[in-house]
Amino acid sequence: MNLLNKFIDRTDFADYEEFKSIRVTVPENFNFACDVVDEYARLCPEKRALVWCNSVGDEKIVTFGELSALANRTVAFLTDAGINRGDYVMTMLNRRWEYWVVAVACCKLGAVLIPATHLLTAKDIAYRCNSAGVKMLIATAEADVIEHTLHAVDKCETLRECVFTAPVEGHRCFEESIMRFPADDPGLTRPDPRGNMLCYFTSGTTGMPKMVQHDFEYPIGFVFNAYFWQAVEDDGLHFTAAETGWAKCSWGKIYGQWIAGSAVFAYDYHGRFTPTDLLPLIAKYKINTFCVPPTIYRFLVKEDLSGYDFSSLHHCTTAGEALNAEVFRQFYEATGQKIYEGFGQTESCVILANFRFMPPVSGCSGKPCPLYDVRLLDDEENQVRDGEEGEICIRLRPHQIGLVSNYKDDPARTAAARGGTYYHTGDLAKRDENGLYWFVGRKDDIIKSSGYRIGPFEVESALMEHPSVLECAITGAPDPIRGTVVKATIVLAPGYTACDALVKELQNHVKQATAPYKYPRIIEFVKEMPKTVSGKIRRVEIREKDSK
Length: 548
Known about the structure:
Layout: H1 16-19, H2 32-43, E1 48-54, E2 59-63, H3 64-80, E3 88-92, H4 98-109, E4 112-115, H5 122-132, E5 134-139, H6 143-153, E6 161-164, H7 174-178, E7 196-201, E8 211-215, H8 222-229, E9 237-240, H9 247-252, H10 255-259, E10 263-268, H11 279-285, E11 289-291, H12 294-300, E12 315-318, H13 325-335, E13 339-344, E14 350-353, E15 367-368, E16 373-377, E17 390-395, E18 406-407, H14 411-418, E19 422-431, E20 437-442, E21 447-449, E22 452-454, H15 456-464, E23 469-479, E24 483-492, H16 500-513, E25 522-525, H17 539-547
């Protein structure tokens, strides 16, 4: 069974035009922990919620009945530790099963959860704890996480306690601690549904991270992610490749998937990650739906996939950056699975997507999610015509589900995002005559050269068609004559060596694949790309290096 009918009026649509008429219901005083997790625990306690394993052979299957009880114990533990409604609790749990327990418990208690990556340094931890006023930190007991956390603790002014997933001298162990408390429902009054439930520190490519806050109605929007885009199945198993510190976890590993009745799969690995490590797990655990970023698909198509069993897979999706059409083609030829692309932000649910009842178009972001009134606007907030570039914006509704509610301690940014007519994403796209949206790039990444406007994605897509290219980034580099020229920074695939002949071959390839004026006049080969902690390429870092 699933709980979809509590939130939407129907699930069967013949096409996108029908889909646009969907009606969304927001239950009064909604709380995800109570209305979804506890409801499944009441109706079908043996239904799977989480299938977890790690790279050293440990496994754990958590049912909704077990999850509800563990969350109740955690609520009692947090309360006993002095954590109250509205207090901030930060997690650095990587892909540990404890994250799902803490997330449900904080939701029920009304504490604000800050999911953070386990890759943070001591400086990062102190910055986040002090900026948000964090009172408790719950972290994985990996050696480097312990080291960075213990170095940061004395600099965290509001932090009362740090708890780890295994015994650490001077600190409590999470599982041992919560099991000392009762599993009974704590009987709390529900938090205000418009209050803060989640706070994400965004991993922007410039400046210090923003604190993006979402309210308790936010999980409802992920029905569109899980059921209509990722096509998760009731009593199925969904895998999204994301650690719990990123908003992609909310997109693909908890809210919408559970509402739609699917269990979520988590693979907790230690050491260096190799994308092919995922492939045997698909057959072993019979994963039905699969969502990984384009980076992982790019690595996978460079491998021999013929020896792996993909028979349990029914639907594949991607988001995080635009997908290259050549990767789409190669993956389909190797697996028989098409990739359904989606687009959104930490501030939102899925905004654009190739939804389940649409034939996916390679390299296309799809059509707008019915949650949002999407417009493409110029700098004066006028709608652009089909075929023209415009910023992806959302016309705000009086009750807008699934969009940032506020930026913590930043009223000016909050007013800019939610106080006007439109929410601005900062991303550019074009819409074609069929109503499909085609991603162009971040506004800040557009290159102006010799009077032309060049979006990096189109050039990157052309380069990715060449077998020598594993990863690439297109930026503008200073030029004394043209002002700016197109530059390609490239990581080569195994078996290729940088040389002048390859530079010429790649330049000619781009000239043939797209408009000749877009070809990269400069090509630099590197061993790895500069990236944010979340894995996004820092084009700004490449531009800054070239401008010196």
